[in-house]
Design brief:
The complex is a heterodimer. Chain A is of the alpha/beta class. In chain A, about 30% of the residues lie in helices and about 30% in strands. The radius of gyration of chain A is 19 Å and the shape is globular. Chain B is mostly helical. Chain B has one domain: ABC transporter involved in vitamin B12 uptake, BtuC, CATH 1.10.3470.10. In chain B, a hairpin with a 3-residue loop joins strand 1 and strand 2. Classes of the chains: A alpha/beta, B mainly alpha. At the A-B interface, helix 2 and strand 6 of A face helix 1, helix 9 and helix 10 of B.
């Protein structure tokens, strides 16, 4: 069974649909990445999947059940999200912020239970934040802060993790650091990871499944070597790319690229 | 079941710090309470005060203490608590540190209702004083509801920024309307209204304590029970939804709670502003950003603040009084400017 099935959804306002009649499935225990140019609707798709936006028509199914019919707290126990612009109030420590991830599991007045503490400490461990747990979250660097948000999502204890451009604003090393962490979570614990990435090479290197979008519709989907082809890159991004095989994953990556209108053609080396 | 062994060192330290803060504020309130009992036109020595409190005073002394000063001080503390908690909730819900009950039209609505009410009577002394809190409450609630409806949009619900802007616009409109209407009031009524708006704690009477207390007893604990919801609302809509909060519903409930509490307060105290702004801020500085701490501590800070303001107001220009609302504003305005200057990004 797939983790998420999107069935014929239309999102937006009646006269201005961003996504029209789109269907796609995201496999369980895999890393799925959505790519596409600015304004192609990938963030809208992601927000609809996580019920921040409501589909006008169609429905999103979480492990076979329509997500809008499920109690939102129950959904939160199975799917965690990391929005593009997460913000923390200034006076919170890393530990406090990560502990908020336990919200869906808590009774209204309850203190943190033993299980809550176990999840929080585990999340801090996995993300390597143990030494920083008493620091104010806002005083951390961008890369560390992103780890805090991931730790919060992990503390939620869900099988599915949805991330909207988790590497934006980070430098090269920190981007890789985050992606390797996600890869580890997927490989070692079988967590389903669904994300939007801007960097095609990262998407290709780390994904099991890629979804390429343009103008609110899916152009193609499949394994990275099926999606990262000259033809599709031209159709999705309007670029001509020189593709080589990635030395780390053996998936195709762009060596460099040119806008179609200036291009002399595409090459696969 | 305290899970003590699971807590980190800094958590335990923080909890101790919060308890200490609470203790210090409690001591300050007690000290101020005693000073306030002795403040007024007729001076009572501390000894006389104590004796009167234990039923050993003269008739005049007990009258002053039990019928004038004590209810007023109790009201000052309760109103301070209510406004502070209401402000803390609003700041959390609209995610704006500059929010306070005034922005959802509480003061404007209550003021307008009181004004319309007294303009029906030839003089203030004709007006049934005990109906006043009810009238003010309805006015405050009505305007808050109007602001809510105007800032509500289908599909999107309530956006914090729209709520704040609508609130400011409506409050400005009501203020303007009130200026026009005051021109038709007779001088006595006008004076009553002016002190009312300035936030004199005018209802120094046990009946007003009884009018206010039930609201706070019911709703402050309820608000406290919503601490964890407030916590995650401050993380932004998307994160809060991801964590399984019923965004629209929770936001609406919390807004209603903030409105009820603030309206109940303003209805017996008159238009006091700034307490709901400053108290949560001071509190955040003292105990950080978790609402489990903010709600109770800001209630205490608010109570202290208004008690001090009312005491100062009674003492500074004896035998006449300066409304507590003005004292709070005199302290509050510079603090507000300081905040603005210090706020980054």
């Amino acid at each position: 069974m797939d983790a998420l099935d999107v069935n014929n959804i239309s999102v937006g306002y009646s006269n201005d649909l961003i996504i029209k009649d789109l269907s796609v499935s995201m496999p369980k225990h895999k890393i799925t990445t959505i790519v596409g140019p600015n304004g192609c609707g990938k963030s809208t798709l992601l927000k609809t999947i996580v019920r921040v936006l409501q589909a006008k028509e169609g429905a999103v199914f979480l492990e076979g059940k329509a997500i809008h019919t499920l109690d939102t707290k129950e959904v939160a126990k199975r799917m965690a999200i990391l929005p593009q612009t997460a913000q923390a109030p200034s006076g919170l420590t890393v530990f406090e912020l990560v502990s908020y991830g336990r919200f869906p599991h808590r009774k209204r007045m309850g203190r943190l239970s033993k299980q809550d503490y176990e999840y929080i400490h585990w999340a801090l461990d996995v993300t390597g934040l143990n030494d920083l747990r008493d620091q104010p979250a806002n005083a951390l660097s961008g890369g560390q802060r992103q780890r805090v948000w991931i730790a919060m999502a992990l503390a939620q204890g869900t099988d599915i993790l949805v991330l909207d451009e988790p590497t934006t604003y980070l430098d090269l090393a920190h981007q890789l650091d985050i992606l390797l962490l996600l890869q580890r979570l997927n490989k070692e614990e079988g967590r389903t990871i669904i994300m939007v990435l801007h960097d095609l090479n990262h998407a290709s290197r780390f994904s099991d499944y890629m979804i390429a979008m343009r103008d609110g519709a899916i152009v193609t989907e499949g394994a990275p070597n099926e999606v990262m082809t000259c033809d599709y890159l031209r159709r999705v991004f309007q670029i001509d790319a020189e593709l080589i095989s990635c030395p780390y994953s053996a998936n195709p990556v762009c060596l460099s690229y040119q806008l179609c209108e200036h291009s002399v053609g595409c090459k696969v080396r | 079941m305290t899970n003590k062994q699971w807590k980190t060192k800094s958590q335990l330290k923080k909890e101790r710090q919060v308890k200490l803060t609470a203790l210090i504020i409690f001591i300050l309130i007690s000290v101020c309470f005693f000073i306030s009992l002795n403040t007024g036109h007729i001076r009572l020595s501390p000894q006389e005060t104590l004796m009167t409190l234990f039923g050993q005073g003269t008739e005049q002394q007990s009258l002053i203490l039990f019928d004038f000063r004590l209810p007023r001080m109790v009201i000052a503390i309760l109103v301070g608590m209510g406004l502070a908690v209401s402000g803390a909730v609003l700041q959390g819900v609209v995610r704006n540190p500059l929010a306070e009950p005034g922005i959802i039209g509480i003061n404007a609505g209550a003021g307008l209702a009181v004004m319309l009410f007294i303009s029906f009577f030839a003089t203030v002394s004709d007006a049934p004083v005990f109906a006043m809190p009810m009238i003010a409450f309805i006015g405050a609630g009505g305007v808050a509801l109007l602001i809510y409806i105007l800032s509500y949009k289908r599909h999107e619900g309530i956006s914090p920024i729209r709520l704040v802007l609508t609130g400011i616009a409506i409050a400005a409109g009501i203020d303007a309307l009130m200026i026009v209407l005051t021109l038709r009031l007779d001088p006595d009524n006008y004076q009553f209204l002016a002190t009312w708006i300035a936030g004199s704690i005018w209802g120094s009477n046990w009946k007003f304590v009884l009018a206010l207390l039930p609201w706070l007893l019911v709703f402050l604990p309820f608000i406290y029970s919503k601490s964890s919801v407030l916590n995650i609302l401050t993380l932004g809509d998307e994160t809060a939804i991801g964590l399984g909060a019923h965004m629209e519903r929770e936001r609406r409930i919390l807004l209603i709670l903030a409105v009820i509490v603030a309206a109940a307060c303003v209805s017996v105290s008159g238009g006091i502003g700034f307490v709901g702004l400053i108290a949560p801020h001071l509190t955040r500085r003292l105990v950080g950003d978790k609402h489990e701490y903010i709600i109770p501590i800001s209630a205490m800070v608010g109570g202290l603040l208004l008690l001090v303001a009312d005491t100062l107001g009674r003492w500074m220009m004896q035998p006449s009084e300066i409304p507590a609302g003005i004292i709070v504003a005199v302290i509050g305005a510079p603090y507000f400017l300081y905040l603005l200057a210090k706020t980054k990004d």
